[in-house]
Amino acid sequence: MTTVSARVEVFSLGGTIAMTPEPGRGPGAVPALSGAQLLAAVPGLAQAGAEVTVHDVRRVPGASLAIADVVELAGLIRASAGSSATGVVVTQGTDTIEETAFLLDLLYDGQAPVAVTGAMRHPALAGHDGPANILAAIQVAASPACRGIGCVVVFADEIHAARWVAKTHTTSLTAFTSPSTGPAGYVTEGRPRLLWHPERPKPMPPLPAGIADRPVRVGIVTMALGDDGELLRAAEGRFDGLVVAAFGAGHVPAATVPVLARLAGQIPVVLASRTGAGRVLAATYGFPGSEQDLLGRGLVSAGFLAPVKARLLLHLLLSAGAAQDQITAAFDAFG
Predict the structure, then answer these.
(1) Of residues 303, 298, 330, 299, the one with CA closest to residue 314
(2) What pTM value is reported for the model?
(3) At 280, phi and psi to the nearest 5?
(4) Is the bond preceding 258 in cis, omega lying within 30 degrees of 0?
(5) Closest by alpha carbon to 327, among 310, 308, 314?
(6) Which value, to the nearest 10 degrees, does the dihedral of the CA atoms of residues 290, 181, 98, 50 take?
(7) CA-CA distance, 314 to 124, in Å (whole number)?
(8) Catalytic: which of 16, 86, 94, 177?
(9) DSSP readout, 88-150?
């Protein structure tokens, strides 16, 4: 007889893991399965040593999730952790897992682990990976060794810290990697084993518990060969903040520097790298459009943060009414 030693709350948002083709609508899969149906398909769940409660929050593709959805979910997670849940699992579409996990990590500061997972193959396909990912995520959420790790992505028996994880393949079952750090750990024989313990930056910069009433719009503009700054000019007056996904270690074409400097005088502009790994430099290059040039013109370095995650951090800071020095301090801490 299996001894129940943990209580895990599962929140289902939809995504590929919950998709099946619908009769009469062609071969394409759509969100259709409830959280209870997902759990019913997990072999070995009864032996996981956890009492599992499931909640259906959304039933949408990952691409259709909104920031407000994740903010609402963070509130539900805080309530669950406050009612003595050992840990939390979130199932969702893989398109936005790296963003959802990071946003949850910013909004949730409890000790109970939060494991976000999904699937690359829907249940109607051979080799559906959803059940194995759910089981591994529950094992992480139920593990005392994982307390305090914040929000992680659990996929293909790997445990990835929310700050570093990225989806790096369109279809592979091992689509999730952490290019700058590697996995924080693995699930082996049903047991999470951490190689290093993910920690949030300390001291923590002030972040809001929710989104302010004032709507905030933060954009991303990605630099490309021969860019003349037209998209940046089009952004003027349309955003409360902007992230520039620059070349290499934080470089842009010289032709874009005047408009970037002008934007940085109007709104917070964060300088990130489009490469997928590594840190934005600070003082290695000095040519027009270099990282030193741009930071000197008032742009804020994203450090190691990917552009999509820098956007979310900036969004929350602006929602909280953070001043420029607070924004810079937050990116120094997280980046």
Answers:
(1) 330
(2) 0.94
(3) -65, 130
(4) no
(5) 314
(6) -160
(7) 39
(8) 16
(9) EEEE--GGGHHHHHHHHHHH---SS-EEEE--SS-TTSTT--HHHHHHHHHHHHT-GGGTT--
- The DSSP bridge pattern shows strands 241-246 and 6-14 to be unpaired
- In a 13 Å sphere around the CA of 49, the CA atoms on its Cβ side amount to 13
The H or E element spanning position 174 is none
Catalytic residue flag (residue 53): no
Number of residues that make up the chain: 335
Q: Closest by alpha carbon to 300, among 288, 283, 320, 282?
A: 282
Task: Give the closest residue to 99 by CA, choosing from 177, 163, 27, 24.
Answer: 163
Instruction: Name every residue whose Cβ is closer than 8 Å to that of residue 25 and which is 6 or more positions away in sequence.
Output: none
Give me the phi and psi of 330, to 5 degrees please: -65, -40
Please give the chain's pLDDT, 335 residues, in tens. Answer: 456 689 999 999 999 999 998 876 767 899 999 999 999 999 999 888 899 999 999 999 999 999 999 999 999 999 988 788 999 999 999 999 999 999 999 999 899 999 999 999 999 999 999 999 999 999 999 999 999 999 999 999 999 999 999 999 999 999 999 999 999 999 999 999 999 999 877 655 555 555 555 689 999 999 999 999 999 999 999 999 999 999 999 999 999 999 999 999 999 999 999 999 999 999 999 999 999 999 999 999 999 999 999 999 999 999 988 999 999 999 999 88
φ and ψ of 262, to 5 deg: -65, -45
- Is residue 54 within 8 A of residue 36, CB to CB? The reply is yes
CA separation for the pair 265, 298 (Å, rounded): 7
Structure tokens at 94: 């893989």
